[in-house]
Amino acid sequence: MDHLGYRKKLGTLGPSTNTIVQPDFDDLRPVGVTNHYSRIAIPNNPVNDNESFLKLVENINKATLEAVDVLRSCEMDYMVMGMSAATFWNGREGASKYLTMMKERAQVGVSCGSFATEAALNVYKAKRIAFLSPYFEVANKEVRRFYEDCGFTVVRDVCLQRPSPVQIAHSTDEMCRQAIRQLDGDDVDAIVQVGTNLSMIRLAAAAELFLGKPVIAINTATYWHALRACGIQDKKAGYGSLLEHH
C-alpha cells in the first residue's frame, strides 16, 4: 500500500503547456489520494485560426500514448485525463472509441472531460445547456456535436479563441464572467466550461450562487468523476455543488 496514496493513486495526464490542471486537481484531492502528473510534450505554437487549432490537437494526439506509458510505471490505480478537446472529437461514438483506446493503453479505468461533464449534467437532469471554451470554432463544433449526441440541446456556445496553448491559462476571470453572461438565460438549464487549461473551478462555483443553476467546470467534473468511479464519496466545499453535494 502506498504510504501517501493509501486510498488511490491517480495518474493524471495533461499537455506540457497546461499550467492549470495540475494545481486544480491537487486542490480537489482528498486525504489518502495522490495525483501523479505526466506531461504530454507539445510545442507552444501560436493558435490563430481553425487550421492552427487542428494542428494543436494533432500534436497532442501524437504524444498522448507515450505520456500514458510513463504513468503506468508508477502503478497507478486509475487515470484522470487533464486534457479535453480530443475527448470530444467525432461525436459520442468517436469519443467512446478514444476512451476505450486510453483504457487499453493505461490498463486501468479512465475518466475524461467529455463523459465526465455528461455525467455531471445528468446528475442535474439538465436538458438545455450552453458552454464556453478557450478554443476556436472548429473545436466548439465538435463539443456541440458530442453533447447533442448525448441528447442535450446546445442553446449557445462561446469560444474565447486564445492565441496559444500557454495563453489559455492567462485568461482572466473577467473574460470568463463575460462569457457566462453571454451564455446564461431562462432557456438554459446549465452552463459548462471546457478546456482544462482555463482556470474556472472557483469562478464556476461562485457563478452557481448568483445564477441559481449548475455551472460545471471541466476540471471539477473530471476529478469528481474519477473519485466516484473509484468509490471515493468525499464531499468538498468551495468548488461548486457537484463536489459538495453529489
Explain the overall architecture:
The chain is globular, with a radius of gyration of 17 Å. It has helices at 21-28, 50-72, 91-106, 113-123, 137-149, 165-168, 173-183, 201-211, 218-229, 241-245; strands at 8-15, 33-40, 78-81, 109-111, 128-133, 153-159, 190-193, 215-217. It contains 10 helices and 8 strands. It has 2 domains: 8-114 and 220-245, Rossmann fold, CATH 3.40.50.12500; 116-217, Rossmann fold. Strand 1, helix 1 and strand 2 form a beta-alpha-beta unit. It has a 4-stranded parallel sheet, with helices on both faces. A 4-stranded parallel sheet has the order 6-5-7-8, sandwiched between helices. It is an alpha/beta fold and 246 residues long. 46% of the residues lie in helices and 17% in strands.
For this entry, give a set of tags.
alpha/beta, 246 residues, single chain, Rossmann fold, 10 helices, 4-stranded parallel beta sheet, 2 domains
